[in-house]
Amino acid sequence: MSEIAAGLAAIRSRIAAAEAAAQRASGSVALVAVAKTHPTEAVVAALAAGQRLFGENRVQEARAKYPELKERHPDLRLHLIGPLQTNKVREAIALFDVIETLDRPKLARVLADEIDRAGRRPDILIQVNIGREQQKAGVDPDQADTLIALCRDEYRLEPCGLMCIPPAGEDPTPHFLRLAELAARNGLPVRSMGMSEDFPVAVACGATHVRVGSAIFGYRG
Ligand SMILES: *Cc1c(COP(=O)(O)O)cnc(C)c1O
C-alpha cells in the first residue's frame, strides 16, 4: 500500500471513530483531500485508493493538475478552498465543483453573472472569518446573515453551507460550534470545518466536510 493510501485509510478510520463517538451516522462526514503543493501523482495515488473529493487553494495549480484526471474520473469533485479573485472567477467556475470561499458581495455578483453566462453551477459555500482575524479571508460572523441573504435575494445564488478556518493555537471548539450555529439559523446543511490537526473536534461539533492535507499527503515543502 502506498503511503498516501495508508494515510487516507488512517484518516478515514479516525473520521469513523469521531462519527461514532459523537453518535453521528457512519458516513455523515465527507473527506476532502487537500492536495495543494503536491504533484499530480499524489492525486493519482489517492484516486487509486478510492478518494474522489479533492481540495485546492489556487485556481492556477488546479488547472495544471486536474483537467485530465477529471476526464478519466467523472466522479472526481474538486473544491476551491483558497481565496478567489474576481478575475479568476471564469476559470474557477469552469474547473471547480464546489467553491468554498465566497466572502464578499462583489464576488457574489461576479460569480452569479458568470454562472448565468457559463450555464455551469458549482455548489457555493460562504467562508466565515470565525475568529475575526485581521489577516484572514472570510466574512465577519456578524455580517454572515446579511451576505447569505444578499446571495439568495439579490444574486440568485443559493449557498449550501459555510466554511471556516479557526485561529491557530486556540481551542477550535467554540469557533466550530459558532459556525454550526450560524449555518443552522440560516438553514444551510453543509459545514466545512476541520483540518489535519483538529478534524475530530470538528466532527464532534457537526462538520459535514473535513479538509485534510498534510495528514494524508505529508508536509508541504
Ligand atoms: C491547506 C488547507 C487545508 C489542509 O490543511 P492541513 O493542515 O494540511 O490538513 C484545509 N483547509 C484550507 C482552507 C487550507 O488552505
TrEMBL record:
Organism of this sequence? Magnetospirillum molischianum DSM 120
- Modified residue N6-(pyridoxal phosphate)lysine is at which positions? 36
**Which family, according to UniProt?**
Belongs to the pyridoxal phosphate-binding protein YggS/PROSC family.
| Protein keywords | Pyridoxal phosphate
Q: Which InterPro entries match?
A: Ala_racemase_N, PLP-binding_barrel, PyrdxlP_homeostasis
Single GO MF annotation: pyridoxal phosphate binding
Free-text function comment from the UniProt entry = Pyridoxal 5'-phosphate (PLP)-binding protein, which is involved in PLP homeostasis.
- Protein name from the UniProt record: Pyridoxal phosphate homeostasis protein
